[in-house]
Specification:
40% of the residues lie in helices and 24% in strands. Helix 9 crosses helix 11. It has 13 helices and 18 strands. The chain folds into 2 domains: 299 residues, 4-Layer Sandwich (Purple Acid Phosphatase, chain A, domain 2); 88 residues, no CATH class. The mean pLDDT is 94. The strands form 4 sheets. Strands 1, 2, 5, 6, 15, 16, 17 and 18 form an 8-stranded mixed sheet that branches.
């Protein structure tokens, strides 16, 4: 019986710098001959659409960017041969119901299947089934919560709820030969996964997942083989030029080649490099840093205290990049902060914000973040306050 070869790519969405190439369907200019050949040789190709395809100019209300691509830019993605797109992610609901409808229509016209979202809370499509060579392979997509939760009469995504997701994985695995989880979550901008991520991945593997892949982090993480499963913590971008500055994190990504046969499966990561307009195959396949991180990660799981300390140090260093955003959101309207931001360098302003809190205040903030009860209380307080603000705005 023939094997089934599936290519899994990371985050993908056309951006203004390459709209013209995507609209023209020019895959060679975007991805180069070697990468196009890798995709062409596969039986099936899957990627994450980090946004929606719409010409709407009405984004939802949110903090952070709203991301979309013109409908016409789907042409190069179709030419690349993408069969399935995951839409359970951070930005697929950025343009609300219209963005959802336009994206569904665009993908349907292009013959691209999708999973991970639906038109309301009771009709979310969690998975897709690939049948090939006498075997059945399930793709399952779930995401952490952002401004993307489905409602009774409003579209949204398949949110990660550990009990439900693991129960669904177990039931689906009983009906198929292999199951691949495409998980959208983790800490953005870090090479290192967290204890929470490891626990989630292990539980999904224990429930029957053969492959679990994390997207969203926009950085390449580590790989792990656990309980017969292949786990990839952070795949990095495929072609997602949202940020014009090419940092080391954004300069590379992984395309994962999965080959399934009657005796099991193999997983082979291929390193890709970002270019000005797209991405290309790394002819050197320099994966040394990736494999070194993976070895350190494995040592951590085996109880190596030095490896655990190194992992925690690097993870904390990457998380510190969010400090200014984190502390600024807790400050409210503060004219003094605005003046300090003008006068200080970014590093000095970050230090100023950190030093503005007493130890007791930091402990209190940590309690609200860490404790389930207070986390829920805080969310409810904010929801009610936003509703009150909306009422005041309407009465003006």
């Amino acid at each position: 019986m023939k094997s089934t070869n599936i290519i899994i790519a990371g985050d993908l969405l056309p951006m203004p710098c390459n709209y013209d190439l995507f609209a023209a369907g020019d895959t060679q200019a975007l991805f180069g001959e070697r990468l196009c050949s890798l995709f062409a040789a596969a039986d099936f190709r899957v990627c994450n659409f980090e946004g929606c395809f719409t010409d709407s100019e009405q984004p939802i209300e949110k903090i952070g960017p709203s991301i979309k691509a013109p409908v016409e830019t789907i042409k190069a993605i179709k030419n690349l041969g993408i069969n399935y797109a995951t839409l359970g992610n951070t930005h697929s609901m950025d343009y609300g119901r219209q963005g959802f409808l336009d994206t569904c229509q665009t993908l349907a016209k292009s013959g691209i299947g999708w999973l991970g979202w639906g038109e309301n809370a009771s009709s979310v499509t969690t998975h897709a089934v690939i049948e090939d060579g006498g075997r059945k392979i399930v793709l399952y997509n779930a995401t952490e919560q952002f401004e993307n939760a489905p409602q009774k009469d409003y579209p949204g995504v398949n949110l990660y709820d550990e009990y439900r997701v693991c129960r669904e994985i177990k039931a689906l695995k009983a009906q198929c030969d292999y199951l691949i989880v495409l998980y959208h979550g983790g800490i953005e901008g870090t090479h290192y996964n967290s204890e929470t991520m490891r626990r989630r991945f292990h539980r999904m593997a224990d429930s029957g997942a053969d492959v679990v892949i994390s997207q969203h982090t926009h950085a390449v993480g580590e790989e792990e083989r656990y309980n017969g499963a292949y786990l990839l913590y952070g795949q990095g971008n495929f072609c997602f030029h949202f940020r014009p500055d090419v940092t080391p994190l954004l300069a590379e990504g992984l395309v994962l080649e999965l080959r399934f046969d009657d005796d099991g499966f193999t997983a082979k990561p291929h390193r890709i490099l970002r270019t000005e307009k797209g991405c290309v195959y790394d002819e050197q396949q320099d994966l040394k840093a990736f494999y070194e991180r993976s070895k350190t990660h494995d040592a951590l799981l085996q109880g190596d205290e030095a490896a655990a300390a190194e992992f925690e140090k690097q993870f904390g260093k990457d998380c510190a990049n969010w400090a200014t955003v984190f502390f600024s959101l807790f400050r409210g309207t503060n004219p003094q902060d605005a003046e300090q931001r003008k006068a200080l360098s970014p590093a000095e302003f970050a230090a100023y914000l950190k030093n503005s809190y007493s130890r007791q205040q930091l402990l209190g903030m940590q309690m609200f973040m860490r404790n389930e009860e207070f986390n829920e209380v805080g969310n409810q307080i904010l929801s009610d306050l936003l509703k009150e603000t909306d009422k005041k705005e309407k009465t003006k």
